[in-house]
Amino acid sequence: MYIGERPHKCRLCEKTLKDKNSCIRHERIHTGERPFKCRFCHKTFTQKGHCTEHERIHTGVKPYKCRFCDKTFIDKTSCIVHERIHTGEKPYGCRFCDKTFTDNAVCICHERIHTGERPYKCRFCDKTFTQKGHCTEHERIHTGDKPYKCSFCDKTFRDRASCIKHERIHIGEKPYKCRFCDKTFTLKSYCNVHERIHTGEKPYKCSFCDKTFTVKTSCIQHERIHTGEKPYKCRFCDKTFTQNSHCNVHERIHTRDKPYKCSVCDKTFKENKSCTEHERIHTVEKLYKCRFCEETFSQKGQCSAHEIIHTGEKNYKCSFCHKTFKDKKNCIYHKRIHTGEKLSKCRYCGKTFTQKSHCNMHERIHTGDRPYKCSFCHKFFKDKYSCKEHERIHTGEKPYKCRFCEETFTQKSHCNVHERIHTGEKPYKCRFCEETFTQKSHCTVHERIHTGDKPYKCRFCNEGEPNNAPDSEGETDEIRNVENKLTNNNAITYHIYKEERTEYYHKDDDTFTTENVTIITDNDVYEILA
Hints:
With 530 residues, the protein is of the alpha+beta class. It has a domain at 456-529. Helices cover 42% and strands 13% of the residues. The protein contains 19 helices and 34 strands. The strands form 17 sheets. A two-stranded antiparallel sheet has the order 1-2. Mean pLDDT is 79; it is low at 465-487 and 496-530. InterPro entries: Zinc_finger (IPR050331), Znf_C2H2_sf (IPR036236), Znf_C2H2_type (IPR013087). Keywords: DNA-binding, Metal-binding, Nucleus, Repeat, Transcription, Transcription regulation, Zinc, Zinc-finger.
């Protein structure tokens, strides 16, 4: 036989091979024949050698030892590839770019990024893959097969890499060190991704725009923004997600599962990230500094949100109206006003909310819980923002400045309302007449004139009840005036304040007299409502 001659041709395709055995093994790809069965499980193989190597997973035999360290392997190829970590040898070069590899199989898979080839298709769905191993691992999602078991605990895994990574938690091993800093990793792939922070390399490009990514999964998730694909569906409602992790976190709203517990206190969280950020409250660790001022934050998201105060940037636009927002989360919450979606339900009364945080705050009305304490006094609050606003009374801080004058405010909402004096904007309109208002609360109080609703009741008398006032003509205008104002919580407070100093007397004919009654004038009431 001549050098390079390939006399054996596959009967099912055009491929030619050097020897008969190779041809037989190749034809099994077409026929699906897998004559070699593992002695320990139901797995079958096209080649005897592959079956032998697989059985070593069960027996733990690793006959091949690295020449440079104590690491051992179940197959010779893996050992040779590993030794190249020590020697630095990368004999396989990509045909399309300058990237080189220690393993030919890895090089072939890499080239498919350039060619777009995805030759392996899932048997259960239409998903395709660049690598056979990735396809096999994916199919286990459908079958539920988890053949890899941790040597230290009972945890099982769909793929070997995840099992190895998990076992390193037990032994504390981090064998892969960054070439640019001292950071170490449990997996080579993690180390590669980390090193791209230093090199700036972003090898994965979106198929629909020019955006590039350091990690392939990030690219795939980004492309779903363009395609609208949301493959992960909640088991409890119809909500769908672009990422499985997002779906898992969402489902905890339904199950109320909070698997992450603070190491300092008993607080629990749905997400590990939220738990980590919370723990910084105890350590007073503030890693993130504003680029424009000296303010520091324990969370990156808080820092980014704060910096927008300086930049005024609003990148997120509502798809139902023209409103824009500084952060994505607030835009999502706003959209629920249009859709009417209210995912979070109170455990005590059934009231529903667009935001989980609003539901949590509402539930504290039932529980009486006030977890946030002022740093300067002993006052406690139901929510973090009320506590922060209160602390500004002590510090004198007024971070919000009017765009039209020099007036400053402790709260953003107060600044917004004030600016309407300059703009003349009155966005809240009465449902029953043409009257408009700068504040929603003023509009709500006004509408009670039309509806007759008096939700606030005096603790000491019946004032404020719908039918508390006598129908007699002897009722004074002053008392009627007070009654009409009890549509507002401030007014009921003021009424009680006055009531503690006066007495109402009944005449024998069940009518009121104005003797010893402190008269509340319109000016008094306007002062209350101001």
